[in-house]
Write a structure and sequence with these properties.
This protein is α/β, with parallel strands linked by helices. The protein is built from 14 helices and 8 strands. Helix 4 crosses helix 6, helix 11 packs across helix 14 and helix 12 crosses helix 14. It starts with a helix and ends in a 10-residue tail after the last helix.
């Protein structure tokens, strides 16, 4: 029943999406801009994999990426363009980056390298081609020579140029000495391939490397959500996270565990009698199921606590697992609602009980680090969904 329903839903989505694909592109379609953001985060991951002991990456604090290191601290600006792109002598990617570094030269004081990381390439006659091989005074000469000629159409360039040269020349030279241009960098598809070639991925099956990367990216993106909202990743924290995530994709994964000698039920079932998941069972007059529901719920709580110790990915996976369970329950419920006589109280109770039984019969499948999944745990998670996520067994309730 469930798998057939999903197939129909998926097919319907494909039809609907094909209709949407024929619609006129909106001015506020920002997909390509967001690809630039995603590329930026891939570069963050790339540098995370290269972190050495006691190094830390800061994201969006002093620009796109900053690497704090006792050896060579770096500040990195990331620029991505769709398709092939030439970094001309007056392109704003370059000039805005230089302006920002010069303007905030005090913040840049402790960085030994200032890197413009771009997918663009230099033109054949570009004055910037020799940048990395010349010293600060020559770089200053290059900048002044580029800006010497005043052109008619330079509204974007001229204010930035003048802003740079309002600064003290010694500060400009100090910045220019540190600047390196990393041009012609791999684009979004190739950078993912580059990441996969890292030695860290050798123990991961090729088919599972992309999900592994997605898991790492997901964690990196959510780091600033919690207080104090710092977006920073130390070498030690990243290694710990990466190893935990890697364990999901290897046969040695620890995953779901119960504390040793855990009894089948709590000492006192009475403490659960006012819980929502118990009230929901009473509401459909299925009191005989309450003892097993309490047992499964309680044992699941013990397993969650024990499995999440020193395992930061378990709770992340558990949240997604509960969402999937809730989606499945809603699909089950919809089918029983369609079959139910809404004017017959007895049929409502009957269909609600069938919904409950159907849910308890769901196969316990593994879900990343939630493995090996066990029947008691899956049933306990179902009761947690009822308790915490607003699901009701009564087919007449939404």
């Amino acid at each position: 029943m469930l798998s057939n329903h999903k197939t129909v839903t998926s097919s319907t989505k494909e039809v609907n999406l094909s209709l949407y694909s024929k619609m006129t592109k909106q001015k506020n379609d920002d997909t390509k801009t967001k690809l630039g953001d995603i590329y930026h985060y891939y570069v963050v991951l790339l540098y995370c994999l290269e972190l050495e002991e006691n190094e830390t990456i800061l994201v969006e604090k002093y620009g796109d990426i900053s690497i704090i290191s006792e050896k060579v601290s770096k500040n990195i600006e990331v620029k991505r363009h769709q398709d092939e792109h030439i970094l001309s002598d007056r392109h704003l990617d370059f000039w805005k980056t230089i302006r920002n570094w010069v303007t905030y030269h005090q913040n840049m004081r402790d960085f030994k390298k200032l890197i413009l990381y771009t997918t663009s390439t230099f033109g054949e006659k570009s004055n910037l081609k020799s940048w990395n091989s010349v010293k600060a005074y020559e770089r200053l000469r290059i900048l002044m020579e580029i800006g010497q000629e005043v052109k008619k159409a330079e509204e974007g360039f001229r204010p930035i140029y003048e802003s740079i040269f309002k600064q003290d020349v010694e500060n400009i030279l100090t910045i220019l000495e540190k600047v390196e241009l990393y041009s012609n960098q791999t684009d979004i598809v190739d950078i993912e391939k580059k990441i996969m070639k890292n030695s860290f991925f050798k123990s991961i099956k090729k088919s599972e490397r992309k999900p592994f990367i997605n898991s790492l990216m997901g964690h990196i993106l959510t780091l600033p959500v919690d207080k104090p909202h710092n977006w920073e990743i130390s070498c030690e924290d990243f290694e710990s996270l990466a190893c935990e995530v890697r364990n999901r994709f290897t046969s040695t994964s620890g995953g779901l565990r119960l504390p040793p000698n855990t009894p089948d039920s709590p000492q006192d079932n009475e403490i659960f009698k006012d819980r929502k998941f118990v009230r929901e069972i009473k509401d459909i007059k299925y009191d005989g199921k309450i003892p097993s529901a309490i047992s499964n719920y309680w044992r699941t709580q013990q397993a969650i606590f024990y499995s999440s110790i020193d395992n930061p990915t378990f709770n992340l996976d558990l949240g997604e697992f509960q969402k999937d369970i809730r989606d499945s329950l809603i699909e089950f419920k919809t089918s029983f609602q369609d079959e139910c006589d809404h004017t017959d109280p007895e049929d409502i109770i009957h269909k609600s009980k069938r919904l409950y039984d159907k849910a308890m019969e769901m196969q316990a499948n593994d879900f990343y680090s939630v493995k090996p999944n066990r029947p008691f745990f899956q049933r306990g998670i179902i009761h947690k969904v009822v308790e915490e996520r607003g699901f009701s067994w009564n087919v007449m309730k939404q």
